Amino acid sequence: MISKETIIDFFKDLKEGSDFNIDEKLLWSYFFLDENEKKLQEFGVKLEQLGYEFDCIFKAEKINQEDDIEYYLQVSKIEHHTIDSLNNLNRLFYKLVEENNINYYDGFDVGNIE
What is the pLDDT along the chain (114 residues), one digit of tens a residue? Predict the structure, then answer.
């Protein structure tokens, strides 16, 4: 689970760098992991209904050859976040993952709007 302290450190790193203006809207991406690709597609539709854009589903890289095949769902949204708003969104995603029987919410990434 992503702690608030982790988010605080993430924002501190963003603020210290010159790549992102955290006071503006940015492109935020969110990642969900499951072995069932169809289940992820259906979950992606639910997230679209919440305003997120379905980006893609891709195979997760195997660490060991014996590992089961898993897939990532990536969704994104242009939005402004504060530490608290991102923490609250992460909590929502953990709840949605549990309610929809998705294996794992794997976190977020941020980029500039192109």
Answer: 999 999 999 999 988 877 888 889 999 999 999 999 999 999 999 999 999 999 999 998 877 777 788 999 999 999 999 999 999 999 999 999 999 999 999 999 999 987
Residue with tokens 């709007």: 113
pTM of the model: 0.92
Asked if 81 and 89 touch (Cβ cutoff 8 Å), the reply is yes
SS3 34: strand
Rounded Cα gap, residues 60 and 79, in angstroms: 26
CB burial class (10 A; 0-12, 13-18, 19+) of residue 78?
exposed
